[in-house]
Amino acid sequence: MSAFIRADRINLDVPIFLQREREATGWGGMFLGAAFDTPKRSLIRLLDDISFEIREGDRLAILGRNGAGKSTLLRVLNRVYQPTSGELTVQGSCQALLNMSLGFSGEATVRENIFLRGIAMGLKAAFLRPQVESILEFAGLEHKVNHRLRTLSSGQKMRLGFAISTSVQHDIMLMDEWVGAGDSEFMAKAKERMQSRVGGSKIVVLASHSVGLLRDMCNKGIVLEGGKLAYAGDITSSLKCYHGMMAQLRANKVITIEDAAPSPAAQIYGVIEEIRQGDGDGLFLVKGWMVDTEGALPSGIALEMDGHRYVAHAVERVRRPDVMRHLGLHTDECGFLASVHVSGVLRPSQLGEQLRVLGGSSSDHADAPLRIAAAVAATLRETD
Ligand SMILES: Nc1ncnc2c1ncn2[C@@H]1O[C@H](COP(=O)(O)OP(=O)(O)OP(=O)(O)O)[C@@H](O)[C@H]1O
């Protein structure tokens, strides 16, 4: 069965209770106000007329500033909130990494909480029983199995929540901002498991402010503003829209939904995946991919080192169907292999970790810094 999510004109209204502004300054007046002045109930709209569709294979980024409605939308997709109106169809089993303490009870033991949380996630006790040991082992809490949950540290509770939530592979994965309360050893384990779960999911929906993470992981995006859908499209144009909105905010402008459409200036981005020595002194081969936000294919590369600029004398196009699929491009010719001569330098490590690789429409106009992959950065850091 294929997985998909379809939201059709979803609205979400929630009740809020507001207390009248109190004027009393004496303790007697305050006491009476607090005791008899009942709060006024009203409804506010948290999500307003949201429509989008996500199909199998999609990785959707939810973008927007603080309070835009990202977590609320994830909760609606996870059925924590029922939309007030509109129609939501979610086909496929859902795994939500939203609230790590969902279903936990402080008075119950760690073992009991595995069942409580698992059942809150819709898993059966018979399924959970054989999983208990591996969940405890992953969380590093074997020695706490019969302790009450409230005696655990907040990091330990987070580890337990994460271990239970990710113990099963689901079709759809909903994730809020990366939960980072563990120590470095646990975070390394957690990252590995997350990558495997994301890889095994048919659909991933991720709300985050981490642009690099979203760009690397997602192929589609939606931008929310004030609970409304400001933009929906591929990840490139969605990020552009988001950056445009943030720039307006920094300039103290009031954002309207109409303003949120991406600005016409194209931006170039890409990744450097390899830098190796070529045949000849000072010749380097630089491999990677780059695109611009208008979907055009830039073809210029330059290296910048110690204030000097070394322009690529040849840039060969390389087919990259993986990047095309990931970013939803119309062509796969976004990869490149550039030859650059840097006089007096023999090995990549001598280029140094301050090296910047710049992309542009032509090598003479290359001024957009491209991201250097971790493995390449490590090579540049190597000492001879
Ligand atoms: N249960 C609720 N009752 C009243 N208001 C709420 C409720 N839940 C969320 N809100 C409000 O809805 C708005 C959107 O909140 P939400 O948590 O979805 O934002 P967000 O985009 O995830 O923000 P952030 O980037 O800060 O995490 C906020 O103004 C928040 O105060």
From TrEMBL:
UniProt xrefs under Pfam families: ABC_tran
Cited PROSITE patterns: ABC_TRANSPORTER_1, ABC_TRANSPORTER_2
Domain of life, per lineage: Bacteria
Residue span(s) of domain ABC transporter: 30-251
Keyword terms, alphabetized: ATP-binding, Nucleotide-binding, Transport
Annotated coiled-coil segments of the chain: none
Listed Gene3D superfamilies: P-loop containing nucleotide triphosphate hydrolases (3.40.50.300)
GO molecular function: ATP binding
Entry similarity comment: Belongs to the ABC transporter superfamily.
Protein name (Swiss-Prot/TrEMBL): ABC transporter ATP-binding protein
Species name: Novilysobacter avium
